[in-house]
Amino acid sequence: MITTIIFDLGGVLIDWKPEYLYTNIFADEMEMRHFLDTVCSGDWNEEQDAGRTIKEGTDFLVSQFPDHEENIKAYYGRWEEMLGGAIGETVEIFKELKSAEKYKIYALTNWSEETFPIAQRKFDFLNWFDGIVVSGTERMRKPDPSFYQLILDRYQLPADEVLFIDDNLRNIKAALEMGIDSIHFTSPEELRIELEERGGL
After folding, report:
1. Distance separating alpha carbons of residues 194 and 100, to the nearest angstrom
2. Fewer C-beta within 10 Å: the chain N or C terminus?
C-alpha cells in the first residue's frame, strides 16, 4: 500500500536545461553541444549537486579550459536563464495528489545547495511538500543508495510504502534495487496513466 510519494524536481516538475542559456551564447548548435558535453558537462554539474561549491567547480573548470572562462562563468552567473519554468501538467498532478490528502509527498533532488534557493523563490509549489531533501546540502546524490536511505530514515518512511518518480532511469533503477516502487517519468500524460493504474489518482 502506497502511503508516500517522492518526486524528483528537475525534469519532472521544473523544466531546467543548460541549453536555454547557451543557445544565447553560441551561434552554432554543434559548438554549443560540444561545450556542454566536454566542458560544462553533466558529470561536472553533478559534483556541485553533490556539495562542491560553485566557486570550487568554476575555478577547477577554468583552470582546465582557460579559453572558455567567460562561458564557464556564465553557467552559474546566469544560471536562472536555464530555468524554463514549471512543467504545468505535472504540477497539476501534484496539486491533485496533495488535495486528495491520501499521501505524504516529499522531494528528493540532485541540486546545488547554492542555486536551490533561487528555485524556491521562483516556484511556489515547492512549499507544498512535506519535506525536501537536497543533494548539495546533504553532500550525497542519486543514485547513491545512502541518499535514498537518508530520506527514508529522516521521515520514517517504510520503503515498501513509497512511490518514487524520477526522469532519470539510472535513479529509478537504484530506487527499485532498494525495494521502492518507482515510475520512470517520460511525460505528464504517461505519469497520470501510471498513477491511475496504481489507484493514486
Report:
1. 17
2. N
